[in-house]
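Let us practice reading a record.
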Amino acid sequence: MVRNDNTALYAFQKFGDTVLRAAFACCGSYSEAEDITQDTFLLLHAKPQSFTDDEHLKAWLLRVAVNKCKNLRRSFRFSRTDSLETQDYSSASYEMNTEDNSVLSEIRSLPEKYALVIYLYYYEGYNTREIAEIQGKSENTVCSLLRRGREKLKMELEKEGAI
């Protein structure tokens, strides 16, 4: 992939929705996900990078977005705002393109470390090695998080009577 002045625009057009969905899965708030997505592409525009191909670019964007989500969770503002359960998502104009939004809402209710791994694996189609690279963790750790996340998700879905 050749670097030029339109890399950020190209990246936004190609991967904007993917980054937004990942940020939304990670932080659970559409408005925060929009801000994180915007910050991610602004960073690419302000500090140009060189990428070998589109997958490298996509992985970099997701890594930056995940890190920004983690920073948000650690921030004072996040810890002093309403919980996700009190948020009204019905007014959001953004709808996830999924068959079953109840499963996605259960995934979002999981702890972040499980929700993000499950989302990247099942919704974005990454394998465990790629998720490990995106998150900066070992592949074994990602496999463990995925297994534990599946167990927690299964228990929650059984509680809700969804399975």
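A brief commentary: DSSP finds eight helices and no strands in the chain.
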